[in-house]
UniProtKB/TrEMBL annotation:
Required for the formation of a threonylcarbamoyl group on adenosine at position 37 (t(6)A37) in tRNAs that read codons beginning with adenine. Is involved in the transfer of the threonylcarbamoyl moiety of threonylcarbamoyl-AMP (TC-AMP) to the N6 group of A37, together with TsaE and TsaB. TsaD likely plays a direct catalytic role in this reaction. Substrate binds at L130, V131, S132, G133, G134, D163, G176, N268. InterPro entries: ATPase_NBD, Gcp-like_dom, KAE1/TsaD, Peptidase_M22_CS, TsaD. This is tRNA N6-adenosine threonylcarbamoyltransferase. One of its GO terms (molecular function) is iron ion binding. GO terms for biological process: tRNA threonylcarbamoyladenosine modification. It comes from Candidatus Thiomargarita nelsonii. The lineage of its organism: Bacteria, Pseudomonadati, Pseudomonadota, Gammaproteobacteria, Thiotrichales.
Length: 331
């Protein structure tokens, strides 16, 4: 079974070809970072229009070897409604033209299963930390489609907090990677920010208060590059420590011995080092996708779609998109 995967949930146009026997055959990604940089964030209408311009040429390039396609998977949500509809319309239309089944994939399930594209891959069951610009969740994964949300952010997601904090410090877009690079030259002992919601029981997160701490600290200091770097380091350390504390608590609560890190913030090297140390101390295996598959991509959609199509799921001729789509609604 050979599946074409299409990802257009936000500002990345991704396509990939996955074969259940041969694995990932190819993938391509177009980023809209330069388009949105002058606005300091994603402009939904511009994102939709750029997906329209880029998606078909990417698919043509990917399928230049005249591959036989057995199914089409596209991101159906959550995400920006206009961007989602571009991928859904193209994906469902191609499936109808080729007379093959189509499946709408949950974006976060794609992230959750992206680690399965690596060697070695985790085995079920495992604990997953989904940490991206739109989501921060701890999920107990029993099997594909069997997900229990143990905890999530009650306000900003971790990636969103990175981007907003970077903007407060006057860094460029995208802010998260820029802040992480700046933090490398920061002194970890100059400032200390709180680790939100770690002094109370439970597995939920809250990152909005950290932005306020950054703002008040930045306004109270001499605003030079070293101060900026020191604040960036203190902020990054606070987020990483908070994520690690909650992961340790969830591993102790569930007794699971595998931890999967997925989503764009999973590419953060400080987070990877910290959780690798946590894994060694607890005797837990820690898994990540390669950095290019931490951010939005077509490969994760192709893989998740292949599993669901192989299980007999498919979409009717009518299609839709869900900008809000709780993972608990998946079967």
């Amino acid at each position: 079974m050979r599946i074409l995967g299409i990802e257009t949930s936000c500002d990345e146009t991704g396509v990939a070809l996955y074969d259940k026997e041969q694995g990932l055959l190819g993938h391509a990604l177009y980023s809209q970072v330069d388009l949105h940089a002058e606005y300091g964030g994603v402009v939904p209408e511009l994102a939709s229009r750029d997906h329209v311009r880029k998606l078909i040429p990417l698919i043509k390039k990917l399928l230049s070897d005249n591959h036989t396609i057995d199914g089409v998977a596209y991101t159906a949500g959550p995400g920006l409604i206009g961007a989602l509809l571009v991928g859904a319309a193209v994906g469902r239309s191609l499936a109808w033209t080729w007379q093959v089944p189509a499946i709408g994939v949950h974006h976060m399930e794609g992230h959750l299963l992206a680690t399965m594209l690596e060697t070695p891959a985790p085995s079920f069951p495992f604990l997953a930390l989904l940490v991206s610009g739109g989501h921060t969740q701890l999920v107990q994964v029993a099997a594909v489609g069997k997900y229990t949300i143990l905890g999530e952010s009650v306000d900003d997601a971790a990636g969103e907090a990175f981007d907003k904090t970077a903007k407060l410090l006057g860094l460029g877009y995208p802010g998260g990677p820029a802040l992480a690079r700046l933090a490398e030259s920061g002194n970890p002992n100059t400032f200390h920010f709180s680790r939100p919601m770690t002094q109370r029981p439970g597995l939920n997160f809250s990152f909005s208060g950290l932005k306020t701490q950054v703002l008040t600290t930045w306004q109270a200091q001499e605003q030079n590059e070293q101060t900026r770097a020191d604040i960036a380091r203190a902020f990054e350390d606070a987020v990483i420590d908070t994520l690690a504390i909650k992961c340790r608590r969830a591993l102790q609560q569930t007794g699971l011995k595998s931890l999967v890190i997925a989503g764009g913030v999973g590419a953060n090297q400080g987070l990877r080092r910290h959780l690798a140390e946590l894994g060694k101390k607890m005797g837990v295996a820690v898994y990540y996708p390669r950095p290019i598959f931490c951010t939005d991509n077509g490969a994760m959609i192709a893989y998740a779609g292949a599993l669901r199509l192989a299980a007999g799921q498919s979409e009717p001729l009518a299609f839709g998109a869900r900008p809000r789509w709780p993972m608990n609604d998946l079967n």
